Each structure stands twice: as C-alpha cells, then as structure tokens.
Automatic annotation (TrEMBL):
Coiled coil: none annotated. Involved in the transport of molybdenum into the cell. Part of the binding-protein-dependent transport system ModABCD. This is Molybdate-binding protein ModA. The lineage of its organism: Bacteria, Pseudomonadati, Pseudomonadota, Alphaproteobacteria, Rhodobacterales. It is found in: Cell membrane. GO terms for molecular function: metal ion binding; molybdate ion binding.
Length: 262
C-alpha cells in the first residue's frame, strides 16, 4: 500500500512539474534581447533606458557604444545590430543608401548642442569670431572627436570654421576615437580644453562648461534611429515604440538631450 501511495504522489508531482514547465516556457521564449548600436554620447542615457525597457517589457538591451562612424562601418561589415542610433544623419544616410536600414522605421530621435569645456574650474567665455582660442591653448591641445569621421568632431570643426577659428586651431587639435574619449582627455587634464556635446559634459564634475557654440555655427545636431535590415527580431518594434514613451523621454532629458520624437 505504501508503494502504491508513493507511486500516486510521484505521478501527481510529475504532472505538476510538467504544468509548471508549460507555464514557464512561453515566458522564456517571449523574453528577447535587442542589440542596439548607439553613439558614445548616449552612454548614461542608454543605461537608464535599458533598465526601464526591461522593466516595461521583460526584454533585454545589449548596447554597443562607440563613435557613429565606427558603428556604421561595423554594420556595413555585417555586425549583428538590431537597431542603430547615430549622432548625425550622415552615417544613417549612408546605411540607408546601401539598403542596410529599414527606411520606414527611421525617426529623428534626439537633438544636442556642442560646448567648449575646460579642465577643472574656469571662467566663462563668449564663443564667437573674436575668441582667442589659440591664445587660450598656448602650447597645449584642444581635445575633439575625430573631425572628419565622428559627428561630435564634425560639428565642432564646422563651428570653428564658421567662426573663422579653425585654421589657427587645427594644428593644436588632439583627435580622439569618440566624444567620450575627448571628454576623458580634458577630465584627466591631458588637454586643457575640448569640444564635446553638452550631454557629455554633464557626465563628470572634473570639467567646466565655459561656453556654448552658436546653433547657427554648425548643422543641426540630430540623432536618427532606425532598425537594421534583415534582423528577424520582433522585440525591435517594441523598442522603437518604447523610445517614444514618457519613461524614455525622461531618461534622455535627464541627461540634457532634446527629445525630438513625439
């Protein structure tokens, strides 16, 4: 009788175990991962966005941060990105021309401004044609992201050229792989001055923002986002929708971004 009793118990436990597994498996299958290639200047904001997206949907974000040029080239070479957020339209345009993004998913997500920063505490300056930037640098260097490839560097060079300052400053520019690397040069004191996004400047208290470049001195700073072609991941559309939510907006605005997408 004991054998029959325990045999019945084990059968009931087995049924409960199968039912529990059946209930768990759909949730596991439903949870997915979205691989996002995002401009380095989005580092802090994307950490918050990742957490909030996971809380809202159960999906995970795998975020790869670098200069937009480097990320675009990786996508051109077949890197497994589900979604790309560039710090300027140019690199997104290049991918769209090659059929590497889904055009109908493209949206202008964010805006930004570029600022002149100094190591430690420093006085404010008026940024205009009369600014003696070469004199401020002396024998030292101006930290910038790569001026012909990385958006922050492209915008910075355009602003300096527009103000008539580029020719005198160009020999003193120390180019970094991305805007966060340029920020680090100033934060550590390796360069006394640098040009970065305002959102990057907010990431450390080791620098001072001493001036903001006039908006008309460079092209508008726009961060477009789009899904990458050929990726069969249903969670991508959920993430694109999430980027338009109040939770995402608050995360971006907290870091100083201008939210453009409604």
């Amino acid at each position: 009788m004991l054998i029959a009793y325990f045999s019945g118990v084990f059968r009931r436990l087995a049924v409960v175990s199968v039912l529990a597994t059946a209930l768990v498996l759909p949730a596991v299958a439903w949870a997915d991962q979205v691989t996002v290639f995002a401009a380095a200047s989005m580092k802090n904001a994307m950490q918050t966005v990742s957490d909030r997206f996971n809380e809202a949907t159960g999906h995970d974000l795998a975020v790869s941060l670098a200069g937009s040029s480097a990320l675009a080239r990786q996508i051109q070479q077949g890197a497994p990105a589900d979604l790309f957020i560039s710090a300027n339209p140019g690199w997104m345009d290049a991918l769209e021309k090659e059929g590497l993004i889904v055009p109908e998913t493209r949206v202008d997500l964010l805006g930004n401004v570029i600022v002149l920063i100094a190591h430690g505490e420093a006085d404010k300056v008026d940024i205009g044609p009369e600014l003696d930037l070469p004199g401020m640098l002396g024998e030292n260097h101006l930290a910038m992201a790569m001026v012909d490839a990385v958006p922050a560097g492209i915008y910075g060079k355009a602003a300096l050229k527009s103000l008539g300052l580029w020719d005198a400053v160009a020999p003193k520019v120390a180019q970094a792989d991305n805007v966060r690397a340029a920020l680090a040069l100033v934060a550590t004191g390796e360069a006394p001055l640098g040009i970065v996004y305002a959102t990057d400047a907010a990431a450390t208290d080791k620098i001072s923002v001493i001036g903001t470049f006039p908006a008309d001195s460079h092209p508008p700073i726009v961060y477009p986002a789009a899904a990458v072609t050929g990726r069969d991941n249903p969670a991508v559309s959920e993430f694109l929708a999430f980027l338009r939510t109040l939770a995402a907006r608050n995360a971006f605005e907290a870091q100083g971004f201008i939210v453009m997408a409604d």
